[in-house]
Amino acid sequence: MLPADWRLRQRVLDAARAAFDRRGFGRISTPTFEDTAVFARGVGESSDIVRKEMYTFADRSDRSLTLRPEGTAPVVRAFVEHGMHREPLPVKVWYALPMFRYEAPQKGRYREHTQIGAEIIGAADPAADAELIAMLYDLYSGLGVPGLRLRLNSIGDSACRPAHRELLVAFLGRRRSELCAECHERMETNPLRVFDCKNPACKAVLVDAPKLADHLCGSCAEHFAGVRAMLDRAGVPSERDDSLVRGFDYYTRTTFEYTSAGLGAQDAIGGGGRYDGLVELFGGPPTPAVGFGCGIERLMLAAAAAGGGDAEPARVDVYVCVDDDSRAIESFELAERLRARGLVVERELAGRSLKGQLKQASRVHARVAAICESDGIRLHSMEGREETRTNYAHALEETCTWLSHRSGTERTSAATSV
Ligand code: HAM
């Protein structure tokens, strides 16, 4: 990520942070690597991540460690380990952290990517699901993500899954010969995951498979209807997709995924769902929870595709020029004092000629060039080409006054950054 990439990346992070601040989320970060068991147990042995995609290694004491492939299991591990279930619930946290997955790299799919994610732990209310989904909708819309689509499903809970599983296994058994080897494996480990298969022949078979959405128990059906009604009311368009099961073993009830048109095969820009059993799996009390993860790099590709890629270049208020080395210290002091006033200031550091310095001032979109000369300072407006002179004693006040009289008082002061 080079400085030019960071302009847009920072805009995405700032927008996310503002959205979390408006909703009362606290920030959390978890270690870059943890005990392999955190992910193997948390994400689930039958998931692709655990089976094929983890960066796992032994350290010098032969402990098995894994680079964080996703954010939910470690957040729940921390929630239990730090007794956060004793705090007023729900606990609402967000993170922006790198994730590591051993996948074949391609456009939008990297072995190291960064997720903006959020988890609401300790809330069963459909409003928690709807709040997260609506928040993402606002974030994506604000960034101008093109061709935004939200798919939504409910995959039930321990009350409705067993009966559906039986029907599904019987169906898959009857059509076994038409399914791929990987689906045969899924039939043994987690039959619901067959719906994740990308193989067209399997997809054709699965059109007729019994869907969980048709076998939800009363409370799951009511919960799902609640989420959808709230999203409708908030004006968040969604489509029901009864094959959206997502690739983690921890999900229960709501699952969702946002995609953006024009990204090619890797079009999922965010996804998540409910995981009501995960806190208990980590040794905590039964605690319902819901969350999402959103890939920053894909979001940047989507925003760039919509023409939002050229985030405004950083704005410079004053470019301090030096026409004579004897004024090096005064010009350095002026730059520092202007910065202390909250202005964005660059000082010439490359020994250019005065003409070269003014060219550079224009390249960095400076509003004013302060040219330090032997008999005083020349303030030169880069926008209007006006000039005024001042002496070193009054340079600070004069520059500030002059600046506030040119193009209003708008300033680029230290932006909040993530
Ligand atoms: P996930 O769907 O695996 O969910 O990842 C979330 C998002 O991360 C994806 O929608 C995508 O935008 C991005 N992403 C995933 N893998 C890559 C990759 N290799 N390269 C670039 N971007 C990628 C989770 O990880 C869950 N922990 C989300 C969650 C939170 N569910 C509940 N709480």
Strand order of the largest sheet: 1-5-6-11-10-9-7-8
Quaternary state, please? single chain
Shape: elongated
Poorly predicted parts: 409-418
What radius of gyration results from the CA coordinates? 28 Å
% residues in beta strands: 15-25%
N-to-C CA distance: 15 Å
Spell out the helices and strands N to C: HEEHHEEHEEHEHHHHEEEHEHEHEHEEEH
Number of strands: 16
| Residue share in helix | 25-40%
pLDDT averaged over residues? 92
Query: Quick one: biggest sheet?
Result: 8 strands, mixed
The number of helical elements comes to 14
Q: Label the structural class.
A: alpha+beta
What small molecules does this complex bind?
histidyl-adenosine monophosphate
Tell me about this structure:
With 418 residues, this protein is an alpha+beta fold. It is built from 14 helices and 16 strands. It has helices at residues 3-22, 36-43, 48-53, 72-81, 126-142, 161-174, 181-189, 200-206, 218-233, 278-281, 296-308, 328-340, 354-363, 395-405, and strands at residues 26-27, 33-35, 56-58, 64-67, 91-100, 112-121, 148-154, 239-240, 252-260, 268-274, 289-295, 316-322, 345-347, 366-373, 376-381, 387-390. It has an eight-stranded mixed beta sheet with strand order 1-5-6-11-10-9-7-8, sandwiched between helices. It has a five-stranded mixed beta sheet with strand order 13-12-14-15-16, with helices on both faces. The chain has a three-stranded antiparallel beta sheet with strand order 2-4-3. A hairpin with a 5-residue loop joins β15 (376-381) and β16. α5 (126-142) packs parallel to α9. The longest helix is centred in the first third of the chain and has 20 residues, at 3-22. The chain is elongated and about 90 Å long. Residues 409-418 have low confidence and may be disordered. Bound molecules: histidyl-adenosine monophosphate. Histidyl-adenosine monophosphate binds at residues 70-72, 101, 103, 108-110, 113, 115, 117, 119, 268-273, 291-295, 297-298.
